[in-house]
């Protein structure tokens, strides 16, 4: 081989060697990069192995293990700068300041003895070996109530009243009504046996110090409450109504649809028009007679609304003396509205018409209605559905007991809505039970469910239990069981029931019954605490051998009656 050929061959061989070397090195670099990336992702995820490597915050010293409530203490330890919460049990300390090795916290006034738990931003939890034993200031009542309105809250005034351990009324422990302040606190008298004209005794036991006992306090008839006037159904979308298109020029659609109770009404647009015109108006003039709200105490417009996770807007309109006015839904009413509404599902809403600023409310109205518009929904999808537009004498304040969509007892059947029962019920299902009356000799079936405590402030004006009833083509009866007392259906409630329901002739009808805790069979019923509610199917006053059918739906507690046909007296 000549020197030139040998050199050319050697050069080509070297090129190939360099090529494969570079390719090999590229693979090594790529593998290393992937490995590093994998390790980086592994470090980011807080799994069981990496969790233990995250910094924990610890306590080594507490400046005062027997502090007075409301005072500040210093915690010394490690990684204090990462601490996000300091607690003893369910009582949270206020963090005043913190550094890497110490932090200052304020001892909550509501606290019991226990170790301190630290939780930091890495979710690491540390429990101290030291135990906080708080000291309490002595609670002292300086002013007892002059009288106690039966079934209503009573007020104590004094010092450190948020540090009361227990209050008894006529020997029964009663619960705090609302939130306790240092200088005053209210307690509920609901469920306490006492008669008007008699005298009651209050006993107050502080967390520290001597127990105090009140002088005899006169029990008087409750005042400052009112009996709501008749609830008025303005539009339920099952009865005939006339939607009128407004001046909006952008595209939208509106139709009846399946509502929460029977039919509802929906409006939707691919792109909302903001304040550029009204989509639809729906009004009712009560057959030309109008509506007289002059005797109403607190007229509210109440309705069900559903935006299905989107946004929409609807507003009330009132016409008086030939002039139509509209008002807006804002955050002032507690629902978070901002000239637009957003809900995940159906929600009850109640708005005080006077507080909305309508010029005429407690007087003669020509028409009452609603109108749909874009409002603060502009350029984005618009959807809203409404149902059961009513005027109620006060807010509805709903608490759902049993919606009858799922079982709440082994003997009541859950059935899909039936065309064989006229009128409308709620949702997709209802509860049903049939049998043969045995009078009062035997219970034919029961259902029961848990109810969260009814807020005594929200329900201060009264409690109504509402439900839909249908006895098919037969007769029926049941009684309520509130765990702490029974309640029967009698003629005094406005429906003509007499320990047996007036037959509904196969139609769904409302029953709205006012219940009075602390009186009669409910003398021991305290709805300010969680309770179990049930219905017990008996023949009652139905003759033995009578075929029975009871269909029910939508048990709901409110502060005004839902039945628009009931005239409270």
TrEMBL record:
InterPro entries: Ig-like_fold, Ig_E-set, IPT_dom. It comes from the Bacteria. It holds the Pfam family TIG. Residues 58-120 form the IPT/TIG domain. This is IPT/TIG domain-containing protein. It comes from Flavobacterium nackdongense.
